[in-house]
TrEMBL record:
One Pfam family linked to the record: OMPdecase
Ranges of residues in domain Orotidine 5'-phosphate decarboxylase: 13-231
HAMAP family: OMPdecase_type1_B
GO cellular component: cytosol
Function summary: Catalyzes the decarboxylation of orotidine 5'-monophosphate (OMP) to uridine 5'-monophosphate (UMP).
Enzyme class: lyase
Annotated source species: Methylacidimicrobium tartarophylax
Residue numbers annotated as active site: D68, K70, D73
Subunit description: Homodimer.
Keyword Lyase: yes
Name of the featured protein: Orotidine 5'-phosphate decarboxylase
Gene field: pyrF
Gene3D superfamilies: Aldolase class I
Pathway noted in the entry: Pyrimidine metabolism; UMP biosynthesis via de novo pathway; UMP from orotate: step 2/2
Length: 239
């Protein structure tokens, strides 16, 4: 029920992105955060350094893995890539909705009956409305996100990734993804940030996110465990 303000236990709604080159450091951080966090995101950076073993190590902590490899290819290639990822028993796996309906359906079918839920990435949180025309997309950001979320749903994909900024538009439509993951989460402004559509944790949940993804604010914190603990205690909408 993504559009009811979440009362999810914190550990279920918070995803920490382990965007690091150093596999040992990533695993150490996951171990330290595990008491508060039950989801860790492994993106291309960490996966290229640590491979399937890093996924296995995180799962051995009893945590869930969001494998964020954002596949965007022809349907047959994506179907095989998804089948390979499913073997690792990851909880979430991303594909780009812009890969089109046949690709999305191939991804959905390849994960059917497994523990892996496919998430369709709509419009990256690093893009702003002015960037859309550069890649040949017309209309507003909200329109594009809603259209891509609808396409994903039509293709059997029940989870999406978008900025929480589009969730009020999505709520007005009849699109109801079961999982709504929102990156671009910021506690304070970061200098030179590549993210463009940022939202605070509290706002994201109030707007209907089921999960938030936080990377650098945690990774760059002097004490990441303390930051996560404070995030929970200070009421981010998570607890
Ligand atoms: O699919 C994602 O996770 C994703 C989609 C998106 O639109 N924007 C986005 O930032 N992400 C990921 O979410 C994480 C955000 O990290 P920080 O910007 O460091 O908090 C990164 O690992 C991104 O790859």
């Amino acid at each position: 029920m993504p559009f009811e303000v979440s009362s999810l236990p914190l550990a279920d709604g918070l995803i920490v992105a382990l965007d690091l080159f150093d596999v040992e450091k990533a695993l150490l951080l996951a171990r330290r955060l595990r008491q508060y966090v039950s989801w860790f995101k492994v993106g291309s950076q960490l996966f290229l350094c640590g491979g399937p073993k890093v996924v296995e190590e995180i799962r051995s902590l009893g945590a869930q893995v969001f494998l964020d490899l954002k596949f965007h290819d022809i349907p047959a290639t994506v179907e095989r890539a998804v089948r390979a990822c499913v073997q690792m028993e990851v909880g979430f796996l991303t594909v780009h909705a812009l890969g089109g309906g046949r690709m999305l359906r191939a991804a959905s079918e390849a994960a059917a009956g497994s523990k892996t839920r496919i998430l369709a990435v709509t419009v990256l949180t690093s893009l702003e409305e002015a960037d859309l025309s550069e890649v040949g997309l017309s209309g507003s950001l909200s329109e594009r996100v809603c259209a891509l979320a609808a396409l994903a749903g039509d293709c059997g994909i029940r989870g999406i990734v978008c900025s929480a900024r589009e969730l009020s538009s999505l709520r007005k439509s009849d699109i109801r993804p079961e999982v709504v993951v929102t990156p671009g989460i910021r506690l304070t402004q970061r200098k030179g940030d590549d993210q463009r559509r940022t939202v605070s944790p509290r706002e994201a949940f109030a707007l209907g996110a089921t999960h938030i993804v936080i990377g650098r604010p945690v990774l760059e914190a002097e004490d990441p465990v303390n930051l996560v603990r404070n995030l929970l205690q200070e009421g981010s909408g998570l607890a």
